[in-house]
TrEMBL record:
It comes from Vicia faba (Broad bean). Keywords: Hypusine, Initiation factor, Protein biosynthesis. The lineage of its organism: Eukaryota, Viridiplantae, Streptophyta, Embryophyta, Tracheophyta. This is Eukaryotic translation initiation factor 5A. SMART domains: eIF-5a. Gene3D superfamilies: 2.30.30.30, Nucleic acid-binding proteins (2.40.50.140). Belongs to the eIF-5A family. GO terms for biological process: positive regulation of translational elongation; positive regulation of translational termination. Translation factor that promotes translation elongation and termination, particularly upon ribosome stalling at specific amino acid sequence contexts. Binds between the exit (E) and peptidyl (P) site of the ribosome and promotes rescue of stalled ribosome: specifically required for efficient translation of polyproline-containing peptides as well as other motifs that stall the ribosome. Acts as ribosome quality control (RQC) cofactor by joining the RQC complex to facilitate peptidyl transfer during CAT tailing step.
Length: 159
C-alpha cells in the first residue's frame, strides 16, 4: 500500500449533457435532431424500405433552430441519433444597449445581459419598435447545445 496523496482535477462540467440519444426511426416531424453538430427542427422525414444490405433508412430534412439553414441527413432507422435538449424561457425586456445587447429580467429578479438582439430582421424591427413605443415586452429565448437566441416576442402591455 502506498501512503501517497492523490489529487484529481475535474476537467468536465456536472455531467449535464447537451444531447441525448434517440433511435432514428422514432424521430418525427417537428421533433429535434442534431445534424452536422447543429441543433435542428425536423421539417420532413421519409423512411426507405429495407434493402439488399438490411437496414431501413430515415432521410431527415431539418432547419437549424438558430440560423435557419436547411440541413439533411440519412441514418439507418435502427441507429441512434443525437437529439438536443431544447429549452424555451420567457424574460421581460428591460433595455437595449447601443452595441446590440439586451437586458432581460429573470424570474428571480436578477438581470441577464449576455444576449444579443436576434438576426431575423422582422423580429428585430418588432423588438426595437415596441421598445421605442414604451410597450412591456416579453421575449422567448430558445437555448440548445450551449447557444441561446431570442426567437419570439409578446406584448404584455395593458391597453
Amino acid at each position: 500500500m502506498s501512503d501517497e496523496e492523490h489529487q484529481f482535477e475535474a476537467a468536465a462540467d456536472a455531467g449535464a449533457s447537451k444531447t441525448y440519444p434517440q433511435q432514428a426511426g422514432t424521430i418525427r416531424k417537428n421533433g429535434y435532431i442534431v445534424i452536422k453538430a447543429r441543433p435542428c427542427k425536423v421539417v420532413e422525414v421519409s423512411t426507405s424500405k429495407t434493402g439488399k444490405h438490411g437496414h431501413a433508412k430515415c432521410h431527415f430534412v431539418a432547419i437549424d433552430i438558430f440560423n435557419g439553414k436547411k440541413l439533411e441527413d440519412i441514418v439507418p432507422s435502427s441507429h441512434n441519433c443525437d437529439v438536443p435538449h431544447v429549452n424555451r424561457t420567457d424574460y421581460q425586456l428591460i433595455d437595449i444597449s447601443e452595441d446590440g445587447f439586451v437586458s432581460l429580467l429573470t424570474d428571480n429578479g436578477s438581470t441577464k445581459d449576455d444576449l444579443k438582439l436576434p438576426t431575423d430582421d422582422a423580429l428585430l424591427t418588432q423588438i426595437k419598435d415596441g421598445f421605442a413605443e414604451g410597450k412591456d415586452l416579453v421575449v422567448s429565448v430558445m437555448s440548445a447545445m450551449g447557444e441561446e437566441q431570442i426567437c419570439s416576442l409578446k406584448d404584455i402591455s395593458k391597453v
